[in-house]
Design brief:
The protein is of the alpha/beta class. It is built from 16 helices and 21 strands. Strands 3-2-4-1-5-6-7 form a 7-stranded parallel sheet, sandwiched between helices. Strand 14 and strand 15 form a beta hairpin.
Length: 466
């Protein structure tokens, strides 16, 4: 239990009519690498072991962490990114995610980068602190204490004072060197009035394998991922005061905004045809937001999954295809070996929307390995990481966008295509053209979140119906 002045400062409250007293906490840190994913995933799994229904969320555009969250929580991991969807949709999306498929007892939101690190040039916008304010949740700060003693209290005090609108309700000490080290840290943090809710020693750290774009996705290593999540649950159960975390989460005020509704967002079904829309999945195409499928379904589509590594053909009756992000470079040979599906996509005459991995898969070749050949480009891996938010404008009419539509997205890749864009580019930003619009295909490196521009789902379903 959290006791003393802090507990008295923000008592649990009763929700007014129409509101929801959802317990919730944001897991943040002073910087990347402090252990946010370890703590957040372990919390989700440990709370679920207690019989609680937990709702997992991730600040920012990242696709990989939500996969581990989903495994831990037993329900989809969802993203909360003000840049991609607009600040006004963050609390409604949280409420929606915590309501589907059943109401959650608690929501755990993993932050991104450092607590106050936002979109470059935009101050705190899209930072963990920004999202914590938008959803009115207390922050549980994970602190790497390696080579740090009493100064940890000064760091936490500064983090708390930097933005008084963000409430740091407790600290998890990570990578503690010894019992004496832990006592020193606890005593120092008690001086500044911030409770320590857990302490993880260096000897019991649990790590998931990573590679060129971060952690290896859950879908590529399901048995090992289950073991990692179970180990993280064990870790949190043995080192974190779960009762204190629950008490902290229950101090969040009621959510008064209505839940985001995909049917309202797309304006209802686009017709009565219910066209089949195939969405790429499987180990090679793991980057997808849960709201994409929800929006397509609400717009009237019958959404089915196709795995380009294993399925020899598109599902029967497919009228449109969505190929999102992932790691085709890791699975290039297996993708190339699926000749039947590559040939079908090369000649498919329905609308296609492809992002990043989808762009590479639809090209002629990736690192010399043959792909679908639907787009006239080749791609190759490089040593350079292209990463960042983008303020884009649709450069051409396509199955997903009207020319001139403004869209915010992000890039995250180490490949390049030759050429970099077609005669009819998909986007323009920073004075340059990007991507390809060819026939009924829209393909580019830009990752987008359709909750931020639901017209894309409706437009695609309308095009499939025609």
């Amino acid at each position: 239990m959290v006791t003393g002045a802090w507990a008295l400062a923000r008592p649990a409250v009763t929700a007014p009519a129409g509101a929801w007293a959802l317990a919730r906490v944001v897991v943040g840190a002073p910087a990347s690498g402090h252990g946010k994913t370890t703590v957040a995933t372990g919390l989700l799994a440990a709370l679920r072991r207690r019989g609680l229904t937990v709702s997992p969320h991730k600040v920012g555009p990242d696709y990989i962490d939500p996969g581990y969250h989903a495994l831990a929580a037993g329900r989809p991991g969802r993203n909360l990114d003000p840049w991609l969807v607009g600040a006004e949709r963050i609390a409604p999306l949280l409420r929606h995610g915590a309501s589907v498929p059943t109401p959650a007892d608690i929501a755990v939101v993993e932050g991104v980068m450092g607590l106050h690190d936002g979109a470059v040039g935009r101050g705190a916008y899209a930072s963990t602190a920004h999202v914590a304010r938008l959803v009115e949740a207390p922050v549980l700060l994970v602190l790497d204490t390696t080579a740090q003693g009493r100064s940890a209290a000064a760091l936490v005090l500064g983090m708390r004072a930097f933005d008084p609108g963000v409430r740091i309700g407790g600290v998890i000490l990570n990578r503690v060197g010894s019992p004496r080290h832990e006592t020193l840290l606890r005593d120092a943090l008690a001086e500044v009035g911030v409770p320590v809710l857990g302490a993880v020693t260096r000897a019991v750290e649990v790590a998931a394998p990573s590679r060129h774009l971060g952690l290896v996705p859950v879908a590529e290593r399901a048995p090992e991922s289950l073991a990692v999540v179970a180990a993280l649950a064990d870790l949190v159960e043995s080192t974190v005061d779960l009762d204190a975390v629950l008490d902290l989460a229950r101090t969040a005020p009621p959510l008064t905004v209505p839940a985001w509704d995909p049917a309202v967002a797309v304006g209802g079904p686009a017709g009565t045809a219910r066209p089949v829309v195939a969405v790429a999945g499987g180990p090679a195409f793991t980057f997808s937001y849960a709201e994409t499928t929800e929006l397509l379904t609400a717009a009237g589509a019958e959404v089915v999954t196709v795995d380009p590594l294993r399925d020899p053909a598109l599902p029967a009756g497919t009228r449109a295809v969505v190929v999102g992000g992932g790691f085709p470079e890791v699975h290039a040979d297996a993708l190339a070996a699926n000749i039947g599906l590559r040939a079908e996509l090369a000649g498919f005459d329905g609308p296609v929307v492809a992002e990043c991995a989808g762009l590479l898969y639809l090209g002629r070749a990736l690192d010399g390995v043959p792909m679908c050949g639907r787009l006239d480009h080749t791609a190759r891996m490089t040593g350079r990481l292209t990463l960042g938010y983008r303020d884009a404008v649709a450069a051409s009419d396509s199955p997903a966008h009207r020319s001139g539509d403004p869209v915010r997205g992000h890039e995250f890749h180490r490949t390049v295509t030759d050429p970099g864009h077609g005669d009819r580019p998909a986007w323009r930003w920073d004075g340059a053209a990007h991507g390809f619009v060819t026939g009924r295909v829209h393909a580019s490196y830009l990752h987008t979140h359709w909750a931020g521009h639901p017209h894309a789902a409706r437009r695609l379903v309308e095009a499939a119906s025609r």
